[in-house]
Amino acid sequence: MMIRSSFAAVLLFLAFINHQCEQTVGSGLPGCPRNITPSGPQSANTPPLQRFQTYLLLLLGFCGFSLLLALLYNAIRKHIFKDFQNLDSTFDAGGRVTLSLTATTVATQLLWPADLLQSATVATKNGLAGPLWYSVGVVINVLLFPLLSVEVKTKAPGAKTYLQIIQARFGSVPHITYTIFALVTNVVITSCLVLAARATIRSLTADASDEMVVIILAIMFGSYSFVGGLGTTFYVSYFNASLIFVMLMILILNVFYLDNDYGGALGSIHKMYTALNCTVGPEGNEGRSFLTFRSEGSLIFGVIGIFLASSVTFCDQASWQSRIAAKPTQGVLGFLIAAFIWYAIPSTLATTTGMAYIAYSSEQGSYFLPESELNEGFVTPFITSRLLGETGAFMVLSMVSMALMSTGSGEVMAVSSILVYDIFQKYIRPYRRNLPPGHCILCGKSNKGNYQTGYQSDMDDGKDQSCSCVRVDHCEACKTDLSDTRLYGKAYQCPTHGRYRHYQDTLIRYKDWCIVWVSLLIVPFGLLVFTSGIDLNWAFTAGCVITIGFCPAVFLCIIWVKTTGIAITIGGIVGLISGIAVTLGLATTYDGGLSDFLTNTGQDYSVLGGCCTSFGVSLILIIIVSLCTHKIKQDEDADDEWMKTVAIRNPLQPWELTFIEDFPKVRDGYIPDHKDMGKRFRSAKIIALVGSLSGIIVLMFILPGIMSSLYVMTESQFTHWVRFCHVWTFIAAAFVIFAPPIQEIVSISRQYRRLNRLSQEASSTEISTSDSYARYDTTGL
Fold first, then answer.
1. Per the domain annotation, does 483 fall within a domain?
2. Which of 96, 182, 628, 768 has the least C-beta neighbours within 10 A?
3. DSSP structure string for 277-313
4. d(Cα 382, Cα 387) in Å, to the nearest integer?
């Protein structure tokens, strides 16, 4: 509420100022206007760090610290939550992550290194409008995700990947198709990560080699993921976000509020405004000014950003893992808060470093960096190291490295989860082959009768075909097995769960190897990307053309019961082909045509046309084909369809045990269906709908609309806008730094007290100290 109230007050104030005065570029100021000439082929950037400094910081500093966090997390899961040796906990961190930690992790994992680098590049090319539209394009999708998050947690609460939902509803052909393109999405994102890492390390480190860069990335991405799983990424993301905000505030102070040795360009808002107001901006900007939010290039980039963020938000398994790890209400609120946290970082950082670069360059009369280094994202490292020297170099290296660790480890875990759940467990070594949807994986019988609805499978023939397997938390044989740690990986004695428990141990070992091999493959993959000659700007924009056509299917298969498998298969493939064809066609209209492939296929209109075509064709085909092929005739058919996704369930860690506090009858064997889940978390759906729509209206329409009405900003307007961004950043920083550890300590202490209480009760009644609810009724992180 505080953020929104401050936001509304500032907008009204800016609107009032707009009616009072308008100003054109450089009016009344001596030496205006100045035109900044392009840089020559020689760069003015001098890397301030030596190789050993960078390598020691990354390997010993970040990797070492993250490994300590991984060990701490493992100790907590082992001694407090009692679910250390559990496959699902590796990929969902226990399934009940706190609100603040969810918000911080989501914001950090969506904060690509490209956001720290390319947002400043957009600012140097388009002025103040660049950071605004860049941030709007991404944050819209962050605000939409709560709607999907609550749908997934109520309709498929046991799913660990979104591909499992596709498989449960539509079968193998659509599942294989979307598994391939989920991995393609991971490839696109990883390409951006390795390019951003190389750009940062090369701009700050003398004689940095590409080989060492990818080796360091492999170690950074895989080390703590291997030791601690997804849960460690939450802890690491918290420290990453906190340090990023601290360093961002230091940078803000040095650019806008502290005197420095860079003449009239930097050191105060007035100095920066004077320099920017005297500088001729790009064509397409109002009055050719950098001080306007009316920018054709920024608007196009913002639209491209919406498609780009859609493809990486909805099609990237890494985005789903952190959302699946929280309960519906915490997930929704966490996402909404994450949107405002995320918005503060690239918008404020790009305004700070991008505008500082333009102002500083105007003093010299030419840009310091050549076009190639601008496209690689050198602006933020250059300005930071110029202002703060070696300290600034360490600071920006730390910021980008922390973003790399959060995002990169998420990609490693995403690929590993797909390999475990959607390839190995489904096609290579399934526990029970050809199991019909809605049937128990332990005995093969229908488990529909176990749910609240009580109806039987269509396969029932009058005999008792319903599953009668005892639930794991009521199984005395499992308690005996789990009390004997020597049995891990060996023959368990439980006749119901023993074989499957051994199977899960096999999957855990396979998971470990997946993380190792995925991390190692980053080395040859990164070298291949470097050899290809693509830059970060091309990978960041053109890559979304490949993935955006599959976004509508992911969205619709979760929210629309009439979606069919043939529809999403046809829509995704045809959308992909159409998008690529349009992109190539528009690229031929530029000078050089396809002979200058990387340049022309990365042009704004080429990417925009390809994205719009791919998304539009895919969406239309999926809707039309689904309407023609669906078999949903009545409410019972819809219930049967969603029961397929509700039945996604690990019998060793049933999803319903996570919701014991919400459904007390679960203790007696009750399993909620999708209707029960929808009713219980109806408030979460309302919060998601109202919060998402409100955020979109404010950030996509009200804010850009009012700022665009200011034409070319006066000094007073510029001052209020900059200070408003700074206040927003400081509020977000306070939440990120203080809220997660407080909630985490409370959560752990509550679980510790519960464990002690249950242990005492068990002792007083002479039962085993490994009480079932101590093991399964956990509060999570």
1. no
2. 628
3. HTB---TTBGGG-SSBS-BHHHHHHHHHHHHHHHHHH
4. 9
Which residues 6+ apart lie within 8 Å of 634 measured at CB?
none
What would the two tokens of residue 204 be? Answer: 């700050």
CB 217 within 8 A of CB 404: yes
Find the domain containing 673 and state its range. 2-38+97-283+316-449+519-537+654-776
What residues form DSSP beta bridges with 295? 285
Q: How many domains does the chain have?
A: 1
Q: Which amino acid is at 125?
A: K
Q: Say which CATH number the domain at 221 has.
A: 1.20.1740
Spell out a b/e string for 53-87, using b for 16 or more CB atoms within 10 Å of the CB, else e.
Answer: bbbebbeeebbeebbebbeebbebbeebbbbbbbb
Which residues make beta-bridge pairs with 366? 37
Q: Is residue 194 part of a domain?
A: yes
Distances (CA, A) of 345 to 117, 118, 137, 279, 503: 11, 13, 14, 26, 44
Q: What is the mean pLDDT of the chain?
A: 79
Contact 90, 229 (CB under 8 A): yes
Instruction: Answer yes or no: are the C-beta atoms of 195 and 543 closer than 8 Å.
Output: no
- CA-nearest of 160, 63, 136, 85 to 408 is 63
Please state, in angstroms and rounded to a whole number, the distance separating the CA atoms of residues 572 and 583: 17
Task: Please give the residue that has the higher pLDDT: either 165 or 506.
Answer: 165
Which carries the bigger pLDDT value, residue 38 or residue 191?
Answer: 191
Provide the CA 584 distance to its chain's centre, in angstroms: 29
Of 710, 723, 709, 780, nearest in space to 751 by CA: 780
Segment (H or E) for 723: helix 715-764
User: How many Cβ atoms from other residues are within 10 Å of residue 46's Cβ?
Assistant: 10
**Of 128 and 466, the one with more pLDDT:** 128
> Secondary structure of 347-413 in the HEC alphabet?
HHHHHHHHHHHHHHHHHHCECCCCHHHHHHCCHHHHHHHHHHHHHHHHHHHHHHHHHHHHHHHHHHH
43 vs 346, residue with greater confidence: 346
CB atoms within 10 A of CB 597: 16
Predicted local distance difference test score (pLDDT) of residue 34? 67
Q: Is residue 112 part of a domain?
A: yes
For residue 285 the two structure tokens come to 């900007």
User: What are the Cα distances from residue 683, in Å, to 688, 721, 781?
Assistant: 8, 35, 22
**Structure letter (DSSP) for residue 292:** B
| Bridge partners of residue 446, in order along the sequence | 439, 466
Respond yes or no on whether the N-terminal peptide bond of residue 30 is cis (omega within 30° of 0): no
User: Is residue 405 a contact partner of residue 500, using CB atoms and an 8 Å limit?
Assistant: no
The pLDDT confidence band at residue 570, using thresholds 50, 70 and 90, is: very high
Q: What angle is formed at CA 573 by the lines to CA 524 and CA 437, rounded to 5 degrees?
A: 95
Rounded Cα gap, residues 270 and 284, in angstroms: 25
Q: How far is CA 595 from CA 112, 205, 655, in A?
A: 31, 34, 54
673-to-16, 330, 472 alpha-carbon distances in Å:
53, 20, 19
Determine, yes or no, domain membership for 176.
Answer: yes
Q: What band does 762 get if pLDDT is binned at 50, 70 and 90?
A: low
Report CA dihedral (368, 371, 374, 375) to the nearest 10 degrees: -170
410: tokens are 């998420």
- pLDDT tens track for 626-655: 999 999 999 889 988 998 898 888 888 888
Give pLDDT, residue 228: 57
Predicted confidence band of residue 588 (pLDDT cuts 50, 70, 90): very high
- Phi, psi (degrees; rounded to nearest 5) at 295: -140, 120
Q: What is the pTM of this model?
A: 0.80
Give tens-digit pLDDT for 482-526: 776 555 556 788 888 888 888 888 888 888 788 888 888 999 998
The more confidently predicted of residues 522 and 8 is 522
